[in-house]
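Support reply, case 0932

Customer input (verbatim):
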Amino acid sequence: MKKGLLVTFEGLDGSGKTTQIQNFIKTLESVKMDHQLFREPGGTGIGEKIRNILLDKNNMEMSDVTELLLYSASRNQLCIEKIQPALKNNKIVICDRFYDSTTAYQGHARGINLDFIKSLNLVAADNLIPDLTFILDIDIEERHNRLDHKNLDRLEQEHLDFHKRVRQGFLQLAEENPKRFVVIDGTKQIDTIANQIWNKFLEYTKE
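Our regenerated output:
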């Protein structure tokens, strides 16, 4: 591989992203492929402080636009400080969420203008576009079952209709750009999902 790759993982909370990212990294390590993992929001000193503000249940009065701009600010810091240098060093960069979450959550679910969000996303991401994006798809009932006993953060506490719109937002993004997005049934067995992800990654790198 001659250049770095940006691989992002998206999906509803409880979809299994964290587990599958860990499996993906284990496989990368087994074949000695240089990589680096980041999460959104966060990944930098500034970004982690923004993350705490965004997910704090005491900040329920936060406006939709404030939320959007805070996510974007965290992303910009991460891209400039961490992701761009890693890509220039030919690393595979894995990101647990990226700007497609902003499109789904703040655009489709909150109702902020999608054209504005698209422009803002590119500015915030320092014009980076993911090479490959995996969406772990589960329905709202499955999400509820998986998060039933979890201490939910500010966004996780949103009503069911909100999360239905988030899911539809992700699926619409995938439909609009099938070359970048891979939608995977998040209810399948963990090993089955991990194999699907790895095979799709290999397909991409051989193109």
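We compared this against your earlier run and they match. Two observations from our side: The chain has one domain: 5-206. The first helix runs from residue 17 to 30. Please reopen the case if you see a mismatch on your end.
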